[in-house]
C-alpha cells in the first residue's frame, strides 16, 4: 500500500474573500467546504487568525470555528493557528474550553507566535512589539495549565476550559517553533503552504530534539502545502494563477482579495521568483500528477499528516479539487 493511502489528509481554509465578493459569501463557502471534505473523509479542518487583511475573513477565529463545528458532525475543527501573543492565555483557554465543551473530542488548538498582521495593526490590538519573542514558551505553559486539571489551591481557573485537555499544536515556519514543540513534546505543524524553504531543516530539528511527554511518545509532524487538482494539468495551472496573483499583490502591497484565473501574469523576473518561492511546495495538476506529487512530498518529508490549502477562485473548482485528491488518496 502506498504511503499516501495511509496518511491522514486535512484542510487549511484561509477564508478567502473574492474581489467584489462578500464576507458572508466567504463564510457560506467555508461551511460548504467543511461539510464536503467531511463527507470525503478528511481528518481536520483548520482556520487561521489574521487581522486587517482584506482578503482573509477569519480574524475572529474562535467564532468561525464554532460556526463550522456546529454545521459538521465528525471532522475535527481547529486553529491553524491562534496567534497566542495577541491574547491573554486565560481568554484563549476560555474560548477553546467553551468550544471543546460544545463539540467534545473535535477541537484542536494550533498556536503561533507571529502577529498575523502588521505593526500598525499590532498597536491597535494593544500587542507589544516584542510580545512572544521571549515569553512565548511561558505563554504556552500558562495556556496548557488552564486547560489541564486544576491543581490544589489554584486561584485562577478557566471556566469553561479547566480540565478540557484541548489538544495543543505548535505551528511554525522556522526552527524556533520546531525546537520548542520538540522540547515540550507537542505535535508540530510546519507552514510549507507559504514558507517551504526551511521545511526539511525544521522537521529534522523537531524529530532529532523531540522529548516524549504526556501528550506524545514519539514526534508527530503535520505539513501544510498548497494543492490544486483539476481534470488536467493545464487546467490546474490555469486555476493556480489565482494564488499566484494573490502572492504577487502581497509583494506589491495591494489587495489580496481572490482574483479570477488568467491566461498570463504581468510580473517581472524578481516578482516571479518571489511568488515561486512562496509556492515552492505546491502540488498542481491532474489526478496522476497530484498523486505522484503527494507521494513524492511524503517521501521527501516523512510527514505524519498533510494539511492541504486549495486557493482557487470559484467554489466549484475548490470542491472539485478536493474530490480529485480524495479519489487519488483512497484509490
TrEMBL record:
Record-annotated Luciferase-like domain positions: 19-304
SUPFAM superfamilies in UniProt: Bacterial luciferase-like
Record GO cellular component, one term: cytosol
Superkingdom classification of source: Bacteria
Pfam families hit by this protein: Bac_luciferase (PF00296)
InterPro entries assigned to the protein according to its UniProt record, in alphabetical order: Bact_Lucif_Oxidored, CmoO-like, Luciferase-like_dom, Luciferase-like_sf
Gene Ontology molecular function, alphabetical: oxidoreductase activity, acting on paired donors, with incorporation or reduction of molecular oxygen
Recorded family membership: To bacterial alkanal monooxygenase alpha and beta chains.
This protein's name: Luciferase-like monooxygenase
Organism annotation: Aidingimonas halophila
Amino acid at each position: 500500500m502506498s504511503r499516501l493511502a495511509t496518511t491522514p489528509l486535512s484542510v487549511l481554509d484561509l477564508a478567502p474573500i473574492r474581489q467584489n465578493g462578500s464576507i458572508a459569501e466567504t463564510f457560506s463557502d467555508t461551511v460548504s467546504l467543511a461539510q464536503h471534505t467531511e463527507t470525503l473523509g478528511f481528518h481536520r479542518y483548520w482556520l487561521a487568525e489574521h487581522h486587517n487583511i482584506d482578503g482573509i475573513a477569519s480574524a475572529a477565529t474562535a467564532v468561525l470555528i464554532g460556526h463550522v463545528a456546529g454545521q459538521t458532525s465528525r471532522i475535527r475543527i481547529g486553529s491553524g493557528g491562534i496567534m497566542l501573543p495577541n491574547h491573554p492565555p486565560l481568554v484563549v483557554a476560555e474560548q477553546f474550553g467553551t468550544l471543546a465543551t460544545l463539540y467534545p473530542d473535535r477541537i484542536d488548538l494550533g498556536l503561533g507566535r507571529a502577529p498575523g498582521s502588521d505593526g500598525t495593526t499590532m498597536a491597535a490590538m494593544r500587542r507589544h512589539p516584542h510580545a512572544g519573542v521571549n515569553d512565548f514558551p511561558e505563554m504556552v505553559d500558562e495556556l496548557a495549565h488552564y486547560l489541564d486539571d486544576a491543581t490544589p489551591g489554584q486561584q485562577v481557573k478557566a471556566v469553561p476550559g479547566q480540565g478540557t485537555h484541548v489538544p495543543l499544536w505548535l505551528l511554525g515556519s522556522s526552527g524556533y517553533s520546531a525546537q520548542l514543540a520538540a522540547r515540550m513534546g507537542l505535535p508540530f505543524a510546519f507552514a510549507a503552504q507559504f514558507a517551504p524553504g526551511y521545511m526539511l531543516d525544521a522537521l529534522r530539528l523537531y524529530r532529532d530534539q523531540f522529548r516524549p511527554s504526556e501528550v506524545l511518545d514519539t514526534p508527530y509532524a503535520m505539513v501544510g502545502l498548497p494543492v490544486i487538482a483539476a481534470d488536467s494539468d493545464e487546467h490546474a495551472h490555469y486555476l493556480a494563477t489565482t494564488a499566484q496573483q494573490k502572492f504577487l499583490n502581497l509583494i506589491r502591497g495591494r489587495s489580496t482579495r481572490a482574483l479570477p484565473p488568467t491566461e498570463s501574469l504581468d510580473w517581472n523576473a524578481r516578482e516571479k521568483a518571489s511568488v515561486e518561492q512562496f509556492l515552492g511546495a505546491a502540488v498542481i495538476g491532474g489526478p496522476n500528477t497530484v498523486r505522484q506529487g503527494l507521494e513524492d512530498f511524503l517521501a521527501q518529508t516523512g510527514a505524519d499528516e498533510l494539511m492541504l490549502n486549495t486557493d482557487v477562485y470559484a467554489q466549484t473548482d475548490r470542491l472539485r479539487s478536493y474530490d480529485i485528491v480524495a479519489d487519488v488518496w483512497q484509490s
